[in-house]
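Sequence, structure tokens reproduced for absentees:
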Amino acid sequence: MTIWIPTVAAAADIVFFPVAAAIVVIGLQRSALSVREKRLFTAAAVFSFLAKVALGSVGHNYDLDTWRLFSDILAQGKNLYSDTDLYRYGPIWAWIVSGFGRLTGPGGGELFHMQISAFLAVIDVLTAMIIARTYSWTGAMVLLLSPVSLLISGFHTQLENVAVLVGLVAWLLIREGKGKLSSLLGSSVCLGVSLVAKHVLFLFPIWMLFWKPLGKLRYRLLYPVIAYAIFFGSFLPWWGDPASRAGMLKNVFAYRSSLGLSWTGNVAGLFMPIQMQVHAAQSNFGVLDRYLHRIPGGSVDRLWMALLVIAGAVLARKPGKDLYLFYLMILFASSPSVAPQYVIVPMIAAAIFYGYPESWGYIAAATLGNFLARSNIGGFLFDAISHSGVMLVRGRPYNLSDLSDVSISPFFLIASQFCIGVLAWRLWRPVSAPSTAAIPTSWSQIRRAAALVAVGGLPLLIMVVRKTMAYGSLASR
């Protein structure tokens, strides 16, 4: 049966592009945008699409190799959950990449990359069209032209924006808070599909338990039940196979990323002893995690999830219509571990609230954090520049891509967390009503954005200095 998945998926991938184009055209026609705004949106969408496809043609990273691996496994009629330890999602993404793998065939080179870049570029255009209709035209333009989405959708080709788009649709179906059962059912189904694509919104159904505009308590209980049922139900076809079940339990449900490369991790490292590590980016949560493990079921990530639930209970009581955007911002800002591709998660919030300097600080820091990472195009450029050149830093050999990946890129990544966290705080306790009315063009606003980036990256800078000095003192003994 699974041998037919790539063929069916390839047909679905082909159909996706004209269907998405039709949705965008109809959506723009029925919007209240002016003719000029529609034309500029179309031009920006075309440019964004072409730029991302072009970025997909110049090389790729490890993640793209894993997408090809998933595609090859399905092409051979094998099982993703038993034949690899690398697949950590519901089946949707595997089906999508298997379709593109079938279209390119074995040894497709960068054509496979370009097709996935094109798919994610269209996802961004759909998201921007929805933002233009429901929030602001300028916010949609910011999303389309943001270098963050260019680098991640175009080169890195990660799938967070797929989950975010479907989650946005789910939110907009209930955003007005009219308590209709039909809207609740449609929204919860969309949210379940988002979780199957990638479980970025894994705690958002719990947040909805506290959001009274959703309706009566039984409605608020029904909502997460449906969303989680769709997510867990997507694994049922493989659950009966012992090897697949073991793989899902290990690689999907029990998967845990490394901790410490985050703003909170580096702040924690300033106040607690940590084991000496080779790279400054490695875990600063080691001591705290050891203490928490003394509590049954205790760990840093479980503590983090509990705090996220509490944050949802608090935010759901606040009047307004942006709970979904708050979730994306707080999820990213508070995460105990951040990878370059994760910066795409709060991008729609930064685009919608483009009038705040915190948003521009986030975009600038997230762009630099991605570009300078080894997993993105900057890392490839640095490897080419310093392929044969190695520098000595306090007696330790480094090349340019090493220094960028373990110190410079993480500086900006955790700074982007800080900026988006400050934006969430400002929107939660606004001096005035949230506004998207002005782009920060004054020097004072630009200076504020730069200051936020500097302050946000300061904990990592201190950690790097501390560790460099410690290594130097050890080497001199």
